[in-house]
Amino acid sequence: MYVITDECTMCASCVDECAVDAISEGDDKYVIDQDVCVECGACADACPTGAIIEE
Asked: What is the pTM of this model?
């Protein structure tokens, strides 16, 4: 399972990379819908701050 940490700067790089549209804007960071995510890791690779981690 991939999660977006508080290091998120809301740059939207992850949103553009998500093939299944599982990432949306939250209150203070982007969030991943775990029911939609296919755990491909493309979002983590695209994140310039390393805010997306696999738990």
From this structure: 0.92
CATH number, domain with residue 21: 3.30.70.20
Torsion (CA) 20, 15, 28, 5 in degrees, nearest 10? 80
CB 24 within 8 A of CB 30: yes
CB-based contact 42:18 (threshold 8 Å): yes
| Domain boundaries, position 7 | 2-54
Distance between CA atoms of residues 38 and 36, nearest Å: 6
Q: What percent of the chain has pLDDT over 70?
A: 100
